[in-house]
Design brief:
29 helices; about 650 residues; nine-stranded mixed β-sheet; single chain; 4 domains; four-stranded antiparallel β-sheet
């Protein structure tokens, strides 16, 4: 027994395996390692002890480490989020009481939603209750007003083998009678959302869209007679919004979702939206991405190809999917991001010149990994508008945007309407096509577009293929290898916070340089270069220090060693620290990380290569950033208004 215990203690796993065991992301595990919440079994292998993982998981589940549980990613969260965008505060209290009733009766989510739906349909006059005189047990029987409603309910009951508990329905029905406005657009969807924990929704990648956003999208685009589809419809918000529009016919509305409960509710919702019609809604329960395969001769959904005039949806974000199968079906998508697959599928589902409107995380606009889907959009769509929506989802920190486009190739002079809380303006789509990562940059000022053009109008060079680069040192255990005091054999090592414009601050950390012990280290010659630039890695602005003392850096401070012949590195540091180039960096990349690929795109005036240029004489001191700004503003012939834009950023 003792040998078995020892074996468990010695067993180790890597970061990804540890993440899977606890139910968090690999990034969370790495953060816990940095914070010493978890210890690596060996700093050389990066392995983590299984026994330690089990111990930590027990503490999380027991609540002993409550703050840690809050810090973990959403996949471990059991927090209930009430969709305030759906219902009024008074309705929220009643809804919570109904849910509490279901919990007390020990009903699972499916049985709870079924009983809630039955009670709701009784309240709406769709189901009538009565005694069955032919049944010796005197059971209650249901009579349905419409055959369409009856079919959906019977299918639901059979597919989940539900035992109907009439007393529960009676209790719920009384709560509905107390609601001020019991017949709401998607009240059943509100129940579904509340009862689905954040963790479950995160695993599916789905969050339900605020009603105001849904209605605005539909109002902007829907016209009677359009064939409309939501390919991940949930409980049918977009479908219901279309149903309220003039000229909408129920048979023109289509919805698909992978969740059977959501599709049952969406079907009931559509039937309630058209109370004078008896029909079976066009709601389908399957996987839009894998079950619709237009390349297969056995595809039973071929009739959907190029069928729809208008598609609107909030697709899943970052969900864990069958990536191998999806990679085969969608070779254009390299990132493995779920919403990227949906965008390519929507292209196949839309008619020529059909409309696509999507609610997406802002990361689609400029994060490098989503370069693939941006290129696909620019190749196959005309973007009509991009709208910043901020943090629009309850309990979700991610900022979102709305992307509207038409399935047709963009004309050279086409302009996109850019909208945010501050302003709106037009941006040429071909600007995005000219950028190396096809970034959809959002400029927060009407004059910014013309200003960017001026930066690239003059002859320039870049750092691409003209510099050596190095990441700072990752020790694997800062507590072990770093010292707060200078000691024998130790030398200064600089962090991102120690990097100031043009210079390094007084060092706060010291290290004995033994690269063989560290987790990540660049070739030593890069740290020991006679001259180099050191820049902050995690930063929304460019902060570059000049170094000629051959110092070491940690991984929050990276290194650039320019290789231009005759260039003054002081001048280059002043260029990147200038307000002018910080403005360009901010509006072009809009990121909190200073990436090598972004720095390699910044234009360096060709005049910097001339050793006789006055700029080298003007920038040989630490106060040179102001001088550099004056030089650049004259060099680019900026107007007074453009200068003010930069100075007031």
């Amino acid at each position: 027994m003792k040998e078995k215990d020892n074996a468990i203690r010695l067993e180790t796993v890597d970061v990804n395996q540890a993440a899977k065991m606890i139910g968090v992301s690999g990034a969370t595990i790495r953060n816990w390692l940095k914070a010493r919440i978890l210890d690596e079994h060996s700093t050389l292998t990066g392995k983590i002890g299984v026994q330690e993982i089990h111990s930590l998981n027990d503490k999380i589940e027991s609540g002993e480490i409550n703050k840690l549980k809050q810090r973990a990613n959403k996949s471990t969260s059991n927090k209930t989020i009430v969709p305030n965008e759906y219902v009024s505060p008074d309705s929220t209290r009643t809804i919570q009481s109904i849910i509490d009733t279901c919990v007390e009766k020990d009903l699972n989510i499916n049985d709870s939603l079924f009983h809630i739906t039955i009670a709701y349909l009784i309240h709406c006059g769709e189901i009538f209750c009565g005694d069955n005189p032919e049944n010796e047990l005197n059971e209650i029987i249901f009579r349905f007003r419409r055959k369409g409603v009856e079919k959906i309910i019977r299918d639901w009951e059979k597919s989940h083998l539900i035992d109907i508990l009439h007393p529960v329905i009676d209790i719920i029905l009384q709560f509905f009678k107390n609601l001020e406005d019991p017949i709401q657009q998607d009240l059943l969807g509100a129940f579904y959302q509340i009862m689905s924990s954040v963790g479950c929704k995160s695993e599916k990648g789905s969050y339900y869209t605020p009603l105001s956003i849904v209605n605005e999208i539909v109002s902007d685009h829907y016209q009677g007679g359009m064939k409309f589809l939501d390919p991940c419809c949930g409980t049918g918000q977009f479908l219901l919004s279309c149903a309220m529009q003039e000229g909408c016919y129920f048979n023109d509305l289509y919805g698909i979702d992978i969740d059977p409960l959501a599709t049952f509710i969406a079907s009931i919702n559509l039937l309630l939206a058209f109370p004078d019609n008896d029909f079976i809604p066009n709601i389908y329960n399957f996987n839009t991405l894998t079950d619709i395969d237009f390349d297969s001769i056995f595809n039973e959904y071929e009739w959907m190809h190029n069928k729809f005039d208008f598609i609107a949806t909030n697709p899943p974000w970052g969900a864990v999917l069958n990536k191998k199968e999806l990679a085969r079906m969608y070779p254009e998508v390299k990132s493995g991001e779920s919403y990227s697959y949906f965008i390519t599928k929507c292209h196949d589902l839309l008619k020529d010149k059909g409309i696509l409107s999507l609610v997406l995380p802002e990361s689609i606009l400029n994060i490098k990994i989503h370069r693939d889907i941006r290129e696909f959009i620019l190749t196959h769509f005309t973007i009509t508008s991009i709208s910043e929506l901020g943090r629009a989802f309850s309990g979700v920190f991610t900022k979102v945007c709305r992307l509207d486009m038409i399935r047709t190739k963009s004309q050279d002079n086409h302009e996109i309407l850019i909208k945010n809380q501050e302003t709106s303006y037009h941006q040429k789509q071909n600007l995005y096509s000219s950028l190396s990562d096809f970034s959809f940059i959002i400029l927060h000022n009407n004059g910014a577009n013309e200003l960017i053009d001026k930066f690239f109008a003059h002859e320039y060079i870049t750092l691409k293929d003209n510099a050596d680069w190095a990441l700072g040192i990752v020790t694997g255990n800062n507590q072990k290898y770093l010292s707060d005091q200078e000691r024998e054999g130790y030398e200064p090592i600089y962090r991102g916070r120690d990097v100031l414009p043009m210079r390094l601050d007084i060092p706060q950390k010291y290290i004995m340089f033994k690269p063989e012990l560290f987790q990540q280290v660049a070739p030593e010659w890069k740290y020991r270069a006679d001259e180099k630039l050191i820049y902050r890695f995690i930063s929304r602005r460019l902060v570059f220090a000049y170094d000629n003392k051959k110092v070491l850096t940690l991984n929050s401070a990276n290194i650039c060693i320019p290789r231009f012949p005759g260039i003054d590195i002081h001048a280059l540091a002043a260029l990147f620290n200038s307000k002018t180039y910080n403005y360009l960096f901010a509006i072009r990349f809009n990121t909190h990380k200073v990436l090598r690929s972004d720095l390699e795109e910044l234009p360096i005036p060709i005049e910097f290569l001339d050793p006789a240029s006055k700029i080298h004489k003007l920038t040989d001191n630490y106060g040179s950033t102001m001088i550099m700004d004056e030089y650049l503003m004259d060099y680019f012939a900026l107007s007074s208004k453009e200068k003010d834009l930069i100075r007031n950023m």
